[in-house]
Design brief:
By secondary structure, this protein is α/β, with parallel strands linked by helices. The protein folds into two domains: 174 residues, Protein tyrosine phosphatase superfamily (Protein-Tyrosine Phosphatase, Chain A, Alpha-Beta Complex), CATH 3.90.190.10; 40 residues. The protein contains seven helices and five strands; from the N terminus they run ααββββαβαααα. It has a five-stranded mixed beta sheet. Helix 3 packs across helix 4. The radius of gyration is 25 Å and the shape is globular. The protein starts with a helix and ends with a helix.
Length: 241
Amino acid sequence: MALQLSWALAKKFAANCIPYGGSTTERIDEPLMSQKIKFFCAPDVVFTDPDTQSTILIGSGFNVSGVSMKPGQYDLVINCALSEVPKIVHPRLIQLDLKDDNNQDLDFLTMEKVVQEAGAVLALPEQKVLVNCWMGASRSTSVAIYICCRLYGATLDPDQDWEYFYDQFKKARPSIAGSVRLRSEVLRLLEQADGCEVVVPQAPSVVREQEAAKSVSGSGDVEESKGDVEAETEAGETEEE
């Protein structure tokens, strides 16, 4: 079975891989490493949450295939190339059908939902969020940068935050070559999101922990009030004697 999947993926790679320079998509810059080689390499950690040590990784279509991805390897998978990578099996999966061309738009509400879902996972200790497209170079990079700008942006200038994260990502994954179109779309959404707080839904485990803490605290209050009543009763009996 694994051999069949490998062969099918290899044929698809040969059919879909356009040599750099053969695409008409306008790029921000050129890749510093062969994207064909990087396609079959492990995903790269491009960001680590300083508090939880949870990470965002960027990978290719190969990294989410049944040949490469193991059960429990990632806590959330965000597939940005549904048309090219349709058959992903994962319990927590977000599917985005983005095109790597000069006309792709990004939907604000959809991207905000992606940020909320990613934020809920990244808020937990030592989680892994994998963002992939076909080559792991443009669409996945743009989505990951939007997530980081919304959750971890350090300035009030979207352009500065974009440049910072793009530079950091490219150092971690040299095959990145973002599209001018997606960069402009991310900046447009960041301008639209100005002043909008990201409401991150709490994971069930966190909610359960908080409810348990409240339960313990509540029972402590009951015990304390019971003790106060007993003390007052004893004091009254002493006065009567």
